[in-house]
Structure formats: structure tokens, C-alpha cells
Amino acid sequence: MFFKTHTKLKRPAKHSSFFIYHAKRLIIIDMNSVKSDFSQGDIKKTIVRLALPLVLAQIVNGLYNIVDRVFIGQLGEIGRTALTGVGVAAPVIMITTAFALLWGLGGTPFFSIERGKGDTEKARQYMGNSFAMLIITAVVITIIGLLIKDKALFWCGASEETFPYANTYLTICLLGSIFSMVSLGMNSFISAQGFPRISMMTIIIGAVINLILDPIFIYVLGMGVLGAAIATVISQLVSAVWVVRFLTGPNAILRLTLSSMSLKKALIVKILGLGTSEFVMRFTTSIVYIAINASLLFYGGDLYVTVGTVINSLRDLMIHPIAGFASGAQPFLSYNYGANRPDRVHKGIKFMGIVCISLSILTSVTLVAFPIPFIRLFNSDPALIEAAVPALRIFFVLFGFLSLQMVGQYTFVGLGMSKQAIFFSIWRKVIILIPLMLILPRHMGVMGIFWAEPVSDTIGGLCCFLTMYFMVYRKLKKDAAPFIASP
After folding, report:
1. How far is residue 187 from each of residues 177, 182, 190, 243, measured CA to CA in Å?
2. Domain range for residue 96?
3. For residue 14, what pLDDT band results from cuts at 50, 70 and 90?
4. What is the sign, positive or negative, of the torsion defined by CA atoms of 485, 119, 28, 260?
5. Could you tell me which residue, 200 or 248, shows the higher pLDDT?
6. Residue 313 DSSP SS3
7. Is residue 347 a contact partner of residue 431, using CB atoms and an 8 Å limit?
8. Phi, psi of 9 (to 5 degrees)
9. Domain membership flag for residue 171
10. What are the residue ranges of helices labelled H in 6-119?
């Protein structure tokens, strides 16, 4: 067995119970080893066991991220304006998420690969270095963010009317960014050790606290947007404490220790190389949102910035179950790659693809067929509904193709193929989407901005998926040994 258990059992006082005590302990050790050894057992059941809690957690996380906007959007006469302000602040907050995933998801695949090889000490060092860099990055982002936030918000599409709400919300969120980054960045290490339910609880605890505190702070205490931001930071603080306590506690298979946080250049370079893929995905999404808001403000005014806020909120919510399943499958792919089991990696990719594509098609059909109830979640202004319905249908009509991008992307990341993962992150959003957003509105008006997304989803998704298919999937089926240079 590769890993030492830290499960506590109360030692019986009587000597006659000595052998019973150690028998129980051996059973617990064996159960923990089986759960954390992804190279054994039914592939579908193993992936579902890892992914289902993450899917539920991602759904809750999606609600977590939009619940502020839902409550704020119902603030009477100022609701729509306040909602727009919070939406304008979202791209800046998303940058903190990008850095959290840079270190978290950049380190997790290597952590899983080393576990698969049986090198527990190196796996622990990857986790510790990821944590240390998360703390350092969070402090830097907070300082820089507070210094440039005013200009940044106007770049993101704020108007004189929406700026006060955006500024209030962003300021508080920046002050609490260290909590959000730790909880998000380190949570994947819990799942990678075979504890997806504990990982799910990280999100659920924060979401429930936020859901309870939001109406109290926003309505009962009359704090409005300020209250929503404070509730969010408190919930993120609790989630961060939960993650750190588990990873440093007796139930973790590999504990987070101070010695493991000693920075090692070689490890950081590798984490950066692989994490840059997820970072680029999130960072470019932030840039896209900034471009969308700025274009919507130019071509349609604050009303269409609100439309963009609603649609992007729904997109973030609907993409979470797909991302959750892909994230749950990723440790399985990484572990079996490290354990030299290409047959299981091949079957794992196939199963992940079927589920993710099915979820995305279901999402597309639902939103295109029934857009109004989803829009009313945020605001019931007739003008907003009239403008948002056609825009939402355009935006989500080809949403199914986005899952192709995600299947390819998570496969590349899971196998340590950072160059391919980074390229396709940039390809869809920077090379395809942003130019389309600049060109199409000149010929189609404000609706051209919404058409840019499905076109880029289709082109980018097909390119990423087909490259993964020919470069990885077919070779895995033929080869009985690893074909990718070891990271």
C-alpha cells in the first residue's frame, strides 16, 4: 500500500482487545487504499464516484456565484442598475479565480500522477508548493486590485450610473480574495485523494452560508450591494477554513505540511506549465466578458449590459455540471496515466465525453425552449425580458459544441499536455471569439455580439476535440504503454 492512514480509533484499555483493535485498523487502511487507487475497479463507477459529488458541488457553486445577482436584481427600482454594476465587477473577480486555478489545477494532475507512481513525498511537495503560491498570489492580487479597481471597472463597461454599485462590490470581494483563492485552489487536492464528498462539502457549506446571509444583509439590514459582498466573503472564509483543516488533519491521506510548502523552482515551473492552461481559459474568459460588456455598452447601453450579465450568469451556472464531471474524471485520467494503464485512460475519456456532451445538449435545448423563467430569476423588467429572450436563444443555440472543447481540454490537462491545453484555450477565445465580437456587430448590430459565442463554440470545440481524438484517444487504444513524455 502506498499511503499511510491517519484514521483515529480509540485504543481499548484491555489487552484482550489488542488484536481486535489492530484488525479494525488494517481494514480501514485497506478500504482507504482501495478508494484512492483509481487503477482498480469498474471505470464508470469510479469516475461517477469521483465526479458526482463534484457535479453537485459545481451546481451549488454556480448558484453560489449568481445568488448575489439574483437577490440584488430584486432590489426594487435600483435592482436592474445594481445588477448591472455587480455584473461589471465580475470579470475582475474572475481573474482571482483564474489565479486560484493556476496553482490548484496546475498542481493537482502532477499530485495524482506522483500518487499513481507511488512517490508520496513528491506528491505532497506539489500540494505544498501550490498552497504557498496561492497565498503569495492572493496578497499581490489584493494590493494591485485595490490600486487599479476604479479604472478597471470603467474598462469593464461601467457607466457613471452603475459604477458606485460595481465599486462597492468589487472592493469587498478583493479584500476577501485570499479566502476564495485558498478554498477554490486547494479543494481539488481533497478530491484527488479520493474524498470527493468532502470536496463537495467545501462548496456546499460556503453556498449555504451565503444563501442564508444574503437576504439578511441585503434586505433585513438594508445593506444592499455591500451586504451581498460581505456575505460572500464570510462564506468564502468558512470554506477556506474547512479545506485547510481537512488537508492538515488526520483524515487526509497526504497531509499539507509546512515542510512541503518550501518552494522548489522545478515544481513551480511544472505547475505553471500545466496550470497556465486553466489560467488562460479563465483569464481569457474574463477578457471576453470585458469585451462583451464594453461592446454592449457601446451598441446597446446599460440595458444590454444587464442582458449580458444575465446571460453570462446563466452560462456560468449551466457550464458547472459539465465542468464538474470533467474535473471528477481528470484525477482518474492522471492517476491511470501515471500507473501505466492506457486502456483505462482511453475508456475514461470515452465515458467523460458521452456524459459531458449529453449534459451540454440538454442545457441548450432547455434554455432555448424556455428562456423567460430563467431571465425572471434576475429581474422581471419587461424591457429586459424583451431584449434578453432573442439574445439568450442565439447565445445558447450551439452550446453543445462547447462540451467538445471541455472534453479535449480536460484530457490534455489530465495527461500533462500543457502546450496543447494552452493553445486551444487561446484559440477559441482570443483568436476566434474576440475578433468575431468586433466584426459581427458592425454588420448585425448588438445581436452580432451574441452570435459570436455560438460560432466560436462550434469552431473551437471541433478543433480541440478532433486534435485530442487523433493525438491522444486513438493512440491510447492502440498502445499498451505511455506515448507521452513523462512530465
Report:
1. 15, 8, 5, 6
2. 43-478
3. very low
4. negative
5. 248
6. helix
7. no
8. -125, 140
9. yes
10. 18-36, 43-73, 79-117
Q: Quick check: 450 pLDDT over 70?
A: yes
Q: DSSP characters for 124-160? A: HHHHHHHHHHHHHHHHHHHHHHHHHHHHHHHHTT--T
- Max intra-chain CA distance, the chain: 85
Q: In 3D, which of 63, 124, 144, 139 has the Cα closest to residue 377?
A: 63
Q: Domain for residue 22, yes or no?
A: no
- Distance between alpha carbon 226 and the CA centroid of its chain, in Å? 25
Q: Does residue 426 lie within any of the structural domains?
A: yes
Buried b (16+ CB within 10 A) or exposed e, 119-143: eeebbbbbbbbbbbbbeebbeebbe
470 CB-near residues (< 8 Å, 6+ apart): none
pTM above 0.90, yes or no: no
Residue 1 lies in a domain: no
Instruction: Report residue 276: phi and psi, to 5°.
Output: -60, -30
Mean pLDDT, to the nearest integer, of 214-231? 93
> Which element (helix H / strand E) includes 198?
helix 196-215
What Å distances lie between residue 373 and 60, 194, 270, 424, CA to CA? 19, 38, 45, 34
**Rounded to the nearest 5°, which phi and psi values hold at 423?**
-60, -50
Domain count, the chain: 1
The cell for 196 is 470527493
